[in-house]
Specification:
By secondary structure, the protein is mainly β.
């Protein structure tokens, strides 16, 4: 884990938010540690502001991530090189190809390179009714030090995980487009990124049974978890909203919080498709080209 750099200045005073949700006159109190549930939420409540500071401090961030906490933001900087194994070689698009397959790709040595990526993550994310579609590019940071992308390839419709393929190198070994960690680098810039739940990340904080812990944070400030709830049960995709989010308790927020889930899926639900929190679009870093031509 990296050292946590705390802001030397005192925290700005901030009033806890009291939100009233119309669930049979249910009152929801918002403060440090998430939401205190008076009744199980059967529908989405908008306008709730959460305090994520305590949980994000508990997260097991990779040593290549520097963190600075202030009253309202977590500023993170990473070189984007994941703290787990990568493949020695990757299948990448031929020149001019946006979305490759086995007939339009070639094999190169792992092109992953150190990046200089910074985000300013709100520590008081606000859940809103209007969603913002996640773009092609960085939509969050995982505890491994690498960024998360949405499910899609450069055309915005081909799903990376379900369209994965391999080529065979001169030694007769399979070389994959997306590796076993659910990630791959862009060949030109060498930016490594994920498109789905990565067991290479979840294994760093989770046991094979038991609850999922924080695996990252989205740019709107809401935490990202693996596929299990606080009781260790797999979260059904049908229980998630269209953004892959859900209200509920987690190990870091036992009183409950809205959070994103990366389920065990290889379809369009494999990653976050939209933000349900207010998001500063200036924080979004667009997808670098994947091939030598335009697009990815």
């Amino acid at each position: 884990m990296s050292d946590i750099e705390e802001s030397p200045s005192p925290l700005k005073s901030r009033k806890h938010v009291v939100a009233i949700a119309i669930f049979s006159a249910v009152v929801v109190l918002v403060g440090s540690g998430g939401v205190l549930w008076k009744q199980s939420q059967s529908s989405e409540s908008t306008g709730i502001t959460y305090d994520t500071l305590s949980g994000l401090k508990q997260a097991k961030w990779s040593s290549n991530i520097t963190r600075t906490f202030t009253a309202d933001y977590l500023t993170v900087n990473t070189n984007d090189i994941p703290n787990h194994k990568r493949d020695a070689k990757y299948a990448v698009p031929n020149a001019g190809i946006v979305v490759p397959d086995a007939s339009t790709a070639n094999i190169i040595d792992d092109p992953t390179k150190a990046q200089d990526i910074s985000f300013e993550i709100p520590l008081h994310p606000k859940y809103v009714s209007t969603t913002t579609d996640t773009p092609l590019g960085s939509i969050g940071l995982m505890i491994s030090g690498s960024v998360l992308f949405n499910p899609y390839e450069g055309d915005g419709k081909t799903i990376a995980m379900s369209s994965n393929f391999s080529l065979t190198d001169t030694d007769g070994k399979k070389v994959w487009f997306v590796d076993s960690c659910s990630g791959h680098p862009t060949p030109n810039m060498g930016q490594y990124h994920y498109h789905a739940l990565s067991t290479c990340v979840s294994s760093q904080v989770d046991k094979t049974t038991g609850p999922s812990h924080i695996e990252g944070v989205a740019l709107d400030g809401f935490p990202i978890y693996g596929p299990r709830d606080a009781k260790g049960k797999l979260v059904a995709v049908s229980a998630l909203d269209r953004c892959n989010g859900i209200f509920g308790a987690t190990p870091e927020y036992p009183k409950g919080i809205y959070h994103y889930v990366l389920p065990q899926a290889t379809d369009s639900r494999s990653s976050i498709r939209c933000f349900h929190g207010e998001v500063d679009t200036s924080q979004i870093q667009q997808m670098p080209p994947m091939g030598a031509g335009p697009g990815r």
